[in-house]
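We recall that each integer encodes one residue's backbone shape. We quote one record:
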Amino acid sequence: MNELPDFAVSCNEREAIKTHTGVCLWFTGLSGSGKTTLANYLEMELNKKGVHTYLLDGDNIRLGLNADLGFSEIERRENIRRVGEVARLFVDAGIVVLAAFISPYERDRNKVRQIIPEGKFIEVFVDTDISVCEKRDPKGLYMRARKNEIKEFTGISAPYEKPSKPELCLVNNNLSDFETNIQILINLLSERKFIMKEKN
């Protein structure tokens, strides 16, 4: 990992004025697994607790920063590399980063793990059955992929490599799973002292 340049205010000093520290939660899973939805609701809950957050996903990253990239394997790898570098800057600012990306290749996720400072990267595998993902598919992407209208679609015509050692694995097949998973995520951040525990 290349070191960031030394500035007058350090990461520790940025974090000292907050009630939390910087960390990157990296949500990975198939399209429709619920990555962004989980990250979105988690961000709302953290915001209520006064935690400074930012959510990164394909919609806001490919709109600007990565608008020049397509979906080939090489371009996907570059997409994830750039996201990792952006996430590192947010973590250095003392922000809780919620990154929701299919990120199908383990080597690319491991590359991001190397980019983020040690101990501040949490890989969250959102393990949802592909049949459930297809039922949730509001844009009809799976249907189009099944008809071969979309090339290199993860889970259909392109591979998804499940994380071998994620910090957290969340089954997210139904609503009860979803509500439980939000609490699991908040508990994890509290237990690892990234955010302060609730006072009784």
Notes: The first helix runs from residue 11 to 16. Residues 125 and 169 are 5 Å apart (CA to CA). DSSP finds eight helices and five strands in the chain.
